[in-house]
Specification:
Layout (H helix, E strand, L loop, with lengths): L1 H29 L3 H6 L5 H11 L5 H14 L12 H36 L4 H15 L2 H15 L12 H8 L1 H27 L2 H8 L4 H24 L8 H6 L5 H10 L3 H29 L7
Helix pairs in contact: 1-4, 1-14, 5-9, 6-9, 7-9, 9-11, 10-11, 11-14, 13-14
Length: 312
């Protein structure tokens, strides 16, 4: 297994180099000149040239590329062009609120979707199954923005059960007072596609020969579902779950923006509006690295879920 692990780490190097080159050339040749945006409409050519020199974008492209590689290796992406705050400090301070929001949402979504998928698999093609599928399609068809606006009006403004927006310094207060409403509204959108996807995985396993053999041996339906079907369906479910983990680094853009949560997603939106390239570059590289390690973790966990899987 160690040979597989080391080989996969080595394979990440050319992939990461490709991401670095793509991000660098996109932001330097397609993204435009941020000096014009930061300087304002009334800036003189001298002001723009001075800003370009301060940002270091007046240097040759190979010098900028080398600086970018050094930033990735050291983990220091410099300072924000708009706020002059360290990019590493921005991510360190904004990641916590995003995790407080997204980790409970991911756990509840996964557990609920798996439980509902097992339920509808037992009563497949029944009224319950068809009703849940229709409800899931309706829930997926409605934008998260609609859920946010309606949810804030009903649950916050009208009923007063939750605050409209806000965030504090106490983890427990944030988790129990500020986060429940955005978590609930986020689940309204995220559970539906997961339910439909996990239902497909479980139904594929139910139709396999080993399930019929287990039933023929007299095993109970619950034992068949939890010991055999769910164990084999866990591989694609795990893949889907691990592929969503890098999204924790980018936060939930709309939820953080409308509920005034100082998370990564809100910071990235502000960075895009201000053409704050260091923050956007750092977020892109972090997500790329997290995606590669999530793939590696999935491959390693396959071996424990299914002993027949060989790591070669």
């Amino acid at each position: 297994m160690w040979a597989f692990f080391i080989r996969r780490l080595l394979q990440m190097i050319p992939t990461l180099l490709g991401v670095i080159l793509l991000v660098f050339f996109l932001f330097n040749w397609v993204g435009g000149d941020p000096a014009y945006i930061l300087a304002g409409k009334m800036a003189s050519p001298e002001d723009i040239a001075n800003i370009r020199h301060q940002l270091g974008i007046d240097q040759p492209w190979y010098s900028q590329l080398w600086i970018f590689i050094q930033q990735i290796v050291s983990g220091n992406f410099g300072d924000s062009w708009a706020t002059h705050e360290s990019v590493s400090h921005i991510f360190a301070t904004r990641l916590g609120p995003s995790l407080v929001l997204l980790i409970p949402m991911m756990v509840i979504e996964t557990v609920s979707a798996v439980c509902f998928a097992l339920l509808v698999s037992v009563f497949r093609r029944s009224i319950l199954d068809q009703s849940l599928m229709v409800l899931s399609t309706v829930m997926m068809s409605i934008s998260l923005l609609v859920y946010i606006i309606v949810g804030q009006y009903i649950f916050a403004s009208w009923l007063g059960w939750f605050p409209v927006k806000g965030w504090g310094d106490s983890l427990w207060r944030n988790l129990t007072y500020y986060a429940p409403l955005p978590i609930f509204l986020g689940l309204m959108v995220s559970i539906a596609p997961s339910l439909r996807l996990y239902r497909t995985f479980i139904l594929d396993e139910i139709n396999q020969d080993y399930v019929r053999t287990a039933r023929a041996k007299g095993l109970t339906e619950s034992r068949v579902l939890f010991k055999h079907v769910l164990k084999n369906a866990a591989i694609p479910i795990l893949t889907n779950l691990l592929m969503s983990l890098p999204g924790l680094l980018t936060g939930a853009f709309l939820l953080e923006r409308f509920f005034a949560i100082p998370g990564i997603g809100r910071e990235i939106i502000l960075a895009v509006e201000r053409s704050d390239f260091p923050i956007i570059k750092a977020a892109t590289v972090y997500v790329a690295i997290a995606t590669m390690f999530a793939n590696l973790a999935a491959d390693l966990l396959y071996r424990y879920l299914d002993p027949r899987v060989s790591l070669k």
